[in-house]
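ping. complex inputs:
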Amino acid sequence: QKEVEQDPGPLSVPEGAIVSLNCTYSNSAFQYFMWYRQYSRKGPELLMYTYSSGNKEDGRFTAQVDKSSKYISLFIRDSQPSDSATYLCAMSDGPSSASKIIFGSGTRLSIRP
Amino acid sequence: DAGVTQSPTHLIKTRGQQVTLRCSPKSGHDTVSWYQQALGQGPQFIFQYYEEEERQRGNFPDRFSGHQFPNYSSELNVNALLLGDSALYLCASSLPGTGKNEQYFGPGTRLTVT
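pong. complex structure:
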């Protein structure tokens, strides 16, 4: 079993819709949770960084962590065609740069104009 | 401020050959991590360099080795290339002392092994 599971999609929604992306994980030591966005032929770009359980909002993006269920989500409100990309969840057991980051396999998202 | 840069952009090698990939971290970053991203997969951690030493390593064979220079730039070397080594190789650098493990990625080097 992989440490981090993520539905690969593809997920296609109309412009303006609310998008929900999810990951589950098995390692209870994970404390720090991230979402990266990766456009085609580019490196991943950090979108959201959260610690432990709870919600964090940044503009149209909301990250949600439920440690009791080992489940994390990313919500995108008022989705735009420019949001079309692959979204990677990632997590680590420590805050410092010395901690290894484990990535999900990514969900490919397409926003239809 | 230049972000993380990697060279070359693309590379085609033959099975059994050796390859060297290069990375320059974001200005002010002292830690460099290397990842392998196969098509349709998330990045897999190869190893991390800090103060010119390998600090952590993922589940990759010894054919994968690296180096960090005094200016914090880094190289990834892969010996005895296999077809399965074909992937996007990503370099990421980290900002020290923030208490956050935020990694900034370069655009990657796409390696094709034939």
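Chain B touches chain A through 30 residues (CB under 8 Å).
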